[in-house]
C-alpha cells in the first residue's frame, strides 16, 4: 500500500496554481464535495476489481482558512483479489485526507509548510 500511496497519490512539492486557486474558491463551505469516494476503479497492484464504496464516517470535517465544513462522508474501497485498501486521496480536488475524519483544504498546505519550516529553522538556531 505504501508503494501505491507514495507513487500515485503524493501531493507534489509544488502545487499547480490552478489547484490552489480551486481550493481557495471552494473555501465557500457549501462548495465542498459531500461524499469523498476514491476514484480508482481497478487495483493498481493486481488489476483486480474493487469493492463498492464502503462508508468510513459521515462526520468528516474539511478545514479551510475561512472555517470548517462538517458532515462530509468519506469512503474506502478494497481490492477483491489482494485486499489492498483505497482511501480518498484526490489532491486534484483541492483536498488532503489527513485521517478520513479530518480533511485539509489544499490551500492550507503551503502556509502550514512555511510555518513548519520557519519553526524548524528557529529551533535549529538555538
What does this entry show, briefly?
The chain is of the alpha/beta class and 126 residues long. 26% of the residues lie in helices and 26% in strands. The protein has 3 helices and 6 strands, in the order H-H-E-E-E-E-E-E-H.
Q: Main attributes?
A:
26% helix, 126 residues, six-stranded mixed beta sheet, disordered C terminus, 26% strand, alpha/beta, 3 helices
Helix content: 25-40%
Number of distinct beta strands? 6
The stretches of 5 or more residues where confidence is low (pLDDT under 50) are 112-126
* Strand composition percent: 25-35%
| Count of domain modules | 1
Secondary structure elements and pairings:
Layout: H1 2-8, H2 17-25, E1 35-36, E2 54-63, E3 68-78, E4 85-87, E5 95-97, E6 102-105, H3 108-124
Please provide a written account of the structure.
The protein is of the alpha/beta class. The chain has one domain. Helix content is 26%, strand content 26%. It contains three helices and six strands. It is globular, with a radius of gyration of 16 Å.
Amino acid at each position: 500500500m505504501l508503494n501505491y500511496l507514495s507513487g500515485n497519490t503524493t501531493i507534489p512539492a509544488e502545487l499547480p496554481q490552478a489547484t490552489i486557486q480551486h481550493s481557495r474558491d471552494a473555501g465557500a463551505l457549501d462548495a465542498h464535495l459531500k461524499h469523498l469516494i476514491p476514484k480508482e476503479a481497478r487495483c493498481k497492484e493486481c488489476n483486480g476489481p474493487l469493492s463498492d464504496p464502503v462508508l468510513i464516517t459521515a462526520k468528516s470535517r474539511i478545514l479551510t482558512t475561512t472555517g470548517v465544513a462538517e458532515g462530509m462522508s468519506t469512503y474506502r474501497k478494497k481490492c477483491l483479489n489482494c485486499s489492498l485498501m483505497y482511501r480518498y486521496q484526490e489532491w486534484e480536488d483541492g483536498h488532503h485526507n489527513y485521517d478520513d475524519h479530518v480533511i485539509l483544504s489544499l490551500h492550507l498546505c503551503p502556509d502550514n509548510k512555511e510555518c513548519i519550516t520557519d519553526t524548524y529553522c528557529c529551533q535549529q538556531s538555538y
